[in-house]
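Q: For a teaching handout, I want to show students what a protein-ligand complex looks like in token form. Below are the inputs, and the small molecule is copper (II) ion. Please produce the holo structure.
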Amino acid sequence: MAEDKKSAISHGKLVGKLTVVVFAMFGFGFALVPMYDMICDAFGLNGRFVEIEQGTFGAEQGQIKGQQLATRRDINRTITVQFTATLNQSMAWEFEPLTRSMELHPGEIKQVKYLAHNKTGKKVVAQAVPSVAPGQATKYFTKMECFCFDQQTFEPGETKEMQLVFVVDPDLPRNVNTITLGYTFFDTDRKAGLESDEKIIMAAAESSKAYLN
Amino acid sequence: MSTVAATHEHHHPTGITRWLFTTNHKDIGTLYLWFAFIMFLLGGAMAMVIRAELFQPGMQIVDPHFFNQMTTMHGLIMVFGAVMPAFVGLANWQIPLMIGAPDMALPRMNNWSFWILPFAGTMLVSTLFMEGGGPAFGWTFYAPLSTTFAPASTDFFIFAVHLLGFSSIMGAINIIATILNMRAPGMTLMKMPLFVWTWLITAFLLIAVMPVLAGAVTMMLTDRNFGTSFFDAAGGGDPVLFQHVFWFFGHPEVYIMILPAFGVVSQIIPTFARKPLFGYASMVYATAAIAFLSFIVWAHHMFTVGMPVAGELYFMYATVMIAVPTAVKVFNWTATMWKGSMTFEAPMLWAIAFVFLFTIGGFTGLMLGVAPADFQYHDTYFVVAHFHYVLVTGAVFAIIAGVYYWLPKWTGNMYHEGLAKWHFWLSAISVNVLFFPMHFVGLAGMPRRIPDYSPMFAEFNMMASLGGFVFGASQLLFLYIIIKTIRGGEKATDEVWEGAEGLEWTVASPAPYHTFETPPQVK
Ligand SMILES: [Cu+2]
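A: Here is the structure, written as tokens, with copper (II) ion included.
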């Protein structure tokens, strides 16, 4: 009898400890969320918001950085840049790059055009969100002029050619020979909860990553 | 002592209430095993639908959406409904018998852990009949496919996973408490049978990662219904995060399904080789090493998400390192058989097949662990071949081996050896006809989880399907053999097997309802 009681108590202690472990691990699952963000930011992984953080996102900053890079043109190296376009979810649109792929030297200023056609009968304000693959190339891809810097307004049925001017940093790591630039077009009305443009861009950059990967 | 005994130990309810209210580890073990078998047949039936559709290229039998539901549910049911509960069933039956304990440490909780399962299983299967169908996003339920684009029934799937997690966690706590607190005098940790050791470590894995899975599905639930954006990019989340959380659970999960299998095989091989297990201590340390490594390799499932090279290298080296303790195990099993006086009764046949075929699965695992090579294999049938060698000819073969090994102790009757050999040879041959060709079509580029494929893969797929039908049918023979053994047969001795060692063989056959009420003395 005495022994029975003793064993019941020691079960209680052990079970208590194990239960603490269970709850701690449940918490750990959620702790992975901020940890993931921190690691990505700290190491610049996954191309998270790199340009916004570097302060090179926008026409003025892009021009300054691009002109600097252009002074260091590296004609001994050739890189392939591919262009893709994705529509977010259910937008009734046509959206495509007019150039699919090009070869260039790092430090060379190049331009390409994207075509967008609003097939809806409504006026739409859209935001294009860029994404670069592989992720490590993101900070070496500088946009000097981009339709993604601003929201684009489309009248019902309107078609637009939109320009992108860019330059690839000569410091691009040696193991990267092909860069893919993808744009995802978002209808800005969809997430009315998001106030600032920057937030939309940051959010959408993530999603276009997911499409590319 | 006498009052305790009078109140709950000599009271035997009969009929359905016996099973509903039972706290007896043997009853609960039996319930787990039957539940697992039913789920195995159900998940197997879904595999038959898959193989029937893939018998020829083109769409013939089911529509693609239903096909996707079949691949998803097949995986979920086999993992959470069949393999895991089967091992918990074996643990319930055997651990108290092997360590000389009268029952599990927490018998009432044990009852709960089991009876949650039928509800969870029913809920999971019922999603197939809901509007929009059941889960169709693969058993790994990656976001955003399982959040933004999933059918409404996904919320029931999430709840079912929560329940299954509860059940496993309670079962694991019970097993740890039993092993740490209830061993007979003299049964030191390093004298415990290997099945007990592997389960102790598995139970720790379970309480470490099942809560993380619960966290992952909870995040899915709030993303779907409460406006959070853990995995929704449009709200600042990241779908790739889902994969990290999932595989933080998922990789240890594969060891949850294989470590107890190592334990079963480590019991069987010494018995039929009539030699003690070679390298007992190294087996224990190897198991612990595998369990530890399983926590730090998860991203080898995600080499293609665009990780930096340093990450790929790290996860590659860490993954390949698991081959070392695993090789120690395979070496020890082989060394145990070396110069043994071996006989080849059914449990031994299954165990030897396990060693051979699991090792094949281990080798393909190494290939997949090599990051640059993985880019070719990723999401192809090569992966399907790999994990079926590990889980079918690994985990499932070990469960079947264990059932044949202990069935005489459970029922008091010997199974029919001739039929069991038929079952073995049919299964062992057909399983290779089923899964081996998948390596080839996978290397040639056939993607997994598709209802249709290029005609160039036709021959190997037809072969795989034929193997699948035979393998499926031969499990019905297994069911027949079990029922026949329960009904009668040659009486088993207490020792059952000539070379068997361990406390479980000192009790009568069939094992009485209560055993080791006075603890045995272990020398
Ligand atoms: Cu893994």
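A: Two things your students might notice: The two ends of chain B are 26 Å apart (CA to CA). Chain B touches chain A through 46 residues (CB under 8 Å).
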